[in-house]
């Protein structure tokens, strides 16, 4: 497997995959950690037949935050990948958005707040092993897709209405009544939704939901 360099800084997804596409094709073991399906271009919810064959032919592990399960399309995509043989887990803790190829190359995503996102491509063995150790720790602490999705099935159905209530400042008692549940149940569901979105307060819901394409 040809490496691009010891450590390279790349700007933008287009350049990233122009320079590393051959590494993805050659790799037989791919581990990916991301906040959502749109961090990495090759993870977006559209698979060609060739892409499906590549999934079947490789060991693929994908670790995501719960927000990916709040959208019906992305949830179906993950279950489809799982059916092809990819191992998928969901973790609630912050993760370093990373791809590891054959435990020899690590690609780390930079700050997404920049106009053009940067990516570090690392092949220095001691650095790759350190990144791999962090991934393995997060992987072991995460839940399987099936286990986590069972918890979020109800929340996913209620998400559109709950997001509308939260972003318009609707009172909890009125929102709960609209959903046919008690106030405490509604507040618990809101807390679960905040975890799924990866935010810590209701004030952050609008921006995060838009990032995930939920609004």
TrEMBL record:
Domain of life: Bacteria
Listed name of the protein: LuxR family transcriptional regulator
UniProt organism field: Amycolatopsis thailandensis
């Amino acid at each position: 497997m040809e490496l691009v360099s010891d450590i390279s800084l790349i700007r933008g997804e287009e350049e990233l995959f122009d320079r590393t596409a051959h590494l993805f094709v050659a790799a037989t073991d791919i581990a990916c950690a991301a906040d959502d399906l749109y961090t990495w271009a090759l993870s977006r919810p559209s698979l060609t037949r060739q892409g499906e064959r590549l999934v079947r032919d490789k060991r693929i592990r994908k670790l995501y935050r719960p927000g990916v399960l709040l959208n019906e399309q992305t949830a179906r995509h993950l279950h489809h990948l799982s059916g092809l043989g990819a191992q998928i887990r969901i973790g609630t803790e912050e993760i370093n958005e990373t791809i590891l190829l054959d435990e020899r190359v690590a690609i780390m995503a930079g700050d997404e707040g920049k106009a053009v996102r940067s990516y570090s491509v690392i092949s220095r063995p001691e650095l790759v092993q350190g990144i791999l150790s962090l991934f393995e720790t997060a992987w072991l602490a995460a839940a399987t897709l099936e286990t986590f999705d069972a918890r979020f099935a109800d929340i996913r159905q209620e998400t559109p209405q709950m997001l509308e209530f939260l972003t318009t400042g609707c009172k909890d008692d009125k929102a709960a009544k609209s959903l046919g549940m008690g106030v405490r149940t509604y507040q618990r569901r809101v807390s679960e939704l905040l975890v799924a979105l990866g935010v810590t307060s209701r004030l952050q819901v609008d921006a995060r939901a838009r990032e995930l394409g939920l609004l």
